[in-house]
Specification:
Blueprint lengths: L1 E9 L7 E11 L5 E15 L3 E6 L5 E7 L2 E6 L2 E6 L7
Antiparallel strand pairs: 1-2, 2-3, 3-4, 4-5, 5-6, 6-7
Length: 92
């Protein structure tokens, strides 16, 4: 299994102050076939000060912080870094 992508929504298709973070997993099988499965990774509330994004997972998973630099939002979680391209305006 590899994580081949994902997406985060902040107040677009979610209420203001709420985020949804999904991951896409790719399962590759010995017979040469593969399957992609999209599933929720984290859901909760966020704060955004214009440069720093703070995510608070509703299940108690963790509090995560992301930083926007050059159109890329980088979020760290348990020693891993996840990068998201900023495709639309982040909420104010």
């Amino acid at each position: 299994m590899t994580i081949s992508g994902g997406g985060m929504q902040l107040g677009l298709n979610t209420p203001a102050g709420v985020y949804e973070w999904d991951v896409v997993r790719t399962y590759e099988y010995a017979n040469g076939t593969s399957q992609q499965v999209q599933s929720p990774f984290s859901v909760g509330t966020y704060t955004w000060d214009g440069q720093t994004l703070t995510l608070i997972d509703s299940t108690g998973l963790a509090s995560m912080t992301g930083v926007l630099a050059g159109g890329v939002l980088t979020v760290g979680h348990q020693g891993q870094e996840y990068e998201f391209l900023k495709l639309v305006q982040l909420p104010q």
